[in-house]
# Entry
Amino acid sequence: MGLLKEIISKKNKSLKPIWLMRQAGRYLPEFREIRKRNLDFIKLCLDIKKVKQITLQPIKRYDLDAAIIFSDILMVPYGLGQKVVFKKNFGPQLGSINLNDIKNQPEKKFLKNLEPVYKSMGMIKKDKTIKKKDLIGFVGGPWTILLYMLNKSSPKKNLRKVLSDRSLIIDMIRYVNHFIQLHIYKQIKSGANIIQIFDSWAGLVKEKNLQDFVYEPTKKLVKLTRSLNTPCICFPRNIKNYPEYTQIVNPDVISIDYNVDPRKILKKIEIPIQGGMDPKVLLTNKKNLEKTTNYYLDVFKNHPYIFNLGHGVLPQTDPSMVEYLIKIVRKFNDRASKN
Ligand code: 1CP
# Structure
């Protein structure tokens, strides 16, 4: 067990563990080196040895408290038989899929398609580098996954009117959610001791649809994760009402985005909080990084808090800034443990 799980379960308030969303990835030269020789991203996510190597890259370089498996939220559509490719300077591009394709996908086939992910998790778990650290497994939120499946490319660039039939969306979410549950279950059984749900596009859902598209299906995922004695972190990026989400969905940790005012949220949420700082701060200078990091640490000094960013590390980040960030967090922890 690592520090994250300790903070979550014992509600230790003084120590602040740190890991970063997208800690393995394009800002690391050692990742880019592998990536340039592996142009098929999905294939890379299914290469057991390389997944292990990439997952451990940031752990070997930095003093982080948790590893997150190198994979992608779009492995679920891939597992369902949808074509998924990542195009350079464009992002993901998906093939067509409909309700019946999802409904008729046998569980066995889905699990076989994703078998290398689970094998990688098992291999990583056994590695001594992460013996005292947490291993985070993850999935996309059901709404976010369905949106990619129907929009067939990033909603950031061109959000099409994917569906107008509300009951069909709810039906599709239900079927997709079944496979997301399987994916969570298998990751835990293979060695993940924490699950994070990335609902990157939760902020696009209208208030009248939140209950059906986000709260209800996500609540099921949290329930399953917790029933397996595993804490669940939820990241409903850009959602308007974090306290309402937290109350209804009931995660163990709520991860906030960088538009959230940390002081305001602190007054409204009692469970452990993660993240918040704008990843763009890592693109500025050390002085500003120190000031902003200490601000977040200070706001949450009496609250169970996991240091992370308000979204993933940006590809243009200088790795030495990440190193400095971790140093600042460690310094804060050293001071806290002496007091
Ligand atoms: O080299 C490359 O071009 C690949 C870049 C890359 C990487 C390193 C992609 C493509 N995915 C990943 C890995 C990844 N994705 C991880 C690994 C573990 C880690 O170090 O954190 C994780 C957790 C994800 C999660 C993910 N994938 C999310 C949720 C978080 C977020 O950023 O909001 C989303 C939305 C995706 C989809 C995705 N994968 C990759 C891209 C370019 C995208 C599209 C993003 C978009 O719509 O803009």
User: Anything to note?
Assistant: Residues 166-190 form the longest helix (25 residues). Residues 3-338 form a domain with the TIM Barrel fold (CATH 3.20.20.210). The CA atoms of residues 185 and 225 lie 7 Å apart. The mean pLDDT is 95.
